[in-house]
# Entry
Amino acid sequence: MKQIVVACGSGVATSQTVASKVNRLLKDNKVPAEVIAVDIKSVDRYIDKSVAYIAITKVTKEYPIPVINGIAFLTGVGQDVEFQKIVDAVNS
# Structure
């Protein structure tokens, strides 16, 4: 199963909330992937094993995988567009 990483400052509240929501969307849409939540300091350890990175904080470097706007999953604004980016990353 493909992995998606989501990170916030502490890896507790916000990233867990987004991970839970995206995991539900993936399941509802029968997309074979899972989201794991980590703290921002640990994200580089998971990049090589992930097909996408859902960022809650401002991204200051480039990654070899798509970076998804995690705020969209908190607010609902632009969520469909960002979710499609995840689906595309999983299917590529």
